[in-house]
Amino acid sequence: MDLNYITIKGLIKLKERLQYLNTIERPEVIKQVVTAREMGDLSENAEYHAAKERQRHIDKEINHLRSRISRLKALDPAQIPKDAVRFGAIVSLKDLHNDELMHYQIVGIDEVGDPEDNIHPISIASPIGKGLLGKKPGDTVLIKVPAGEREFNIIEIK
What we know:
With about 160 residues, the protein is an alpha/beta fold. It contains three helices and seven strands. About 40% of the residues lie in helices and about 25% in strands. A hairpin with a 4-residue loop joins strand 3 (about 90-95) and strand 4. Helix 1 (about 10-35) runs antiparallel to helix 2 (about 45-70). The two termini are about 30 Å apart. The model has no long low-confidence stretch (mean pLDDT about 95).
């Protein structure tokens, strides 16, 4: 069994999503299936087929989340040393191509998503995530990404 890491915050988000699906979305779609079934002939009942498809989608996501959560180990980034880039670190770096200042948090593959507070979550398995691991403030790193190469200077690690 593969064990993957996730931040505590990321694990909480996954569990909240699972609970929402189990307590809100799934019961609602089951009501829609029952209502559509009461309309009669199921062979040409588009509402029934749409509700059943939505139920399958929700059940598939619930099963996926349960499986993923069972294989995750939550780490608290606050407990991880900040002398080098490690899992959970928030890294401020400068793109040496355009002088843009960027902020990334190195996270698990299950918690990559939209930025919060101008901090972009980036997977530890991504080219940039892998390329930053172990680097220290002041280090310059050249990372191969699908669009070519990018060179960064690490400004700060939080």
